[in-house]
Every structure is written in structure tokens, then in C-alpha cells.
Amino acid sequence: MVEEIKKYFKNGKFNPPAIKQDIVEVEEKLGIKFPIVLRELYLTFNGFREEIAGAAYLLPLKSDKDGSSVLGMNKFFKEEYKQYYPNIDFSNYLFYGSSCSDELWAINLINESEVIAYNHHMEDVYEIVGRNIFEVYIKDQEYFLEVTKGV
């Protein structure tokens, strides 16, 4: 999948790879194990943005200059979000990126063939948007190109 992502997103801004210890540290702090696909992505590039749409398709593991990170976002959903929306449970999901329309993406830690999109405006629901991360990236890119056609 890594090669397909780099090939497809020629305008992508790819960060240098993460080191295994950073992945292990984030896993320990969140009390989870990364799916193999995310582990592979992070060992190749520790985050990437799609420059044209501005989407943070893969957040860095730890805070970057704008403060967004896998660690920060998932700590927020595990520790603070329940006070706002107590009826939604994200305990089996790992948030890893966002779309060009600011929906957050997460992968199901139990069923890795389920990727969801969520925005706080959705309140107590989320949407299943794909079976794998690459599929979700492609759909989002196609959506962006369609809505900006002729602009």
C-alpha cells in the first residue's frame, strides 16, 4: 500500500519515517496495538498531507507544529470526548487522519477492514467509509477533485 500511496499522491508532503520506539511508545500510552497497515505506513512516513486538498491524511504519531497527532487525538477521544457525547464509544478505534472536508478517520482495531469517518457535528453517529485506508484516501481525493472542478 505504501508504494501505491506515494505513486497516487504525487503532490503529497511525506514526513520522514517514524522509528519503532515511537510507535511502541504511542501504543503503550494509548493501551492499544497498531494495525499492521498503520505500522507499515508510519515506518515509511510519519504522517503525510495531500497538498492540493490540504487534508492531513496521516497524522504524525506525536505533535507536530500545528499540534495534531495520533497520540493527542486518540487521548482526547479516550479521555475527554465522553463528557460531550456519552453515547458514542470509540474505544475500538484508532484515529489516524482526516479528510479534505475535516472528517476524522479511524480504523477499527478489532475489524481492520472497517474505516470510519467522524465529525463532531455528527454527534452520536459515525459513518463507515471504506474497507481499507488506501480506498478511503482515493475516495476522498476523487471527491475533492469533483467538488473543485472548474474552480
Automatic annotation (TrEMBL):
Superkingdom of origin: Bacteria
Coiled coil: none
Domain Knr4/Smi1-like: 17-140
InterPro entries: Knr4/Smi1-like_dom, Knr4/Smi1-like_sf
Record protein name field: Knr4/Smi1-like domain-containing protein
Organism: Clostridium chromiireducens
